[in-house]
Amino acid sequence: MAKADIRIKLGKRMRQLRAEQGLTQQELAKRSGLSLPYIQMLEGIEPKRRRSATIVTLEKLSDGFGVSLSKLLDF
Question: Does CATH number 1.10.260.40 belong to domain 3-72?
Answer without folding.
Answer: yes
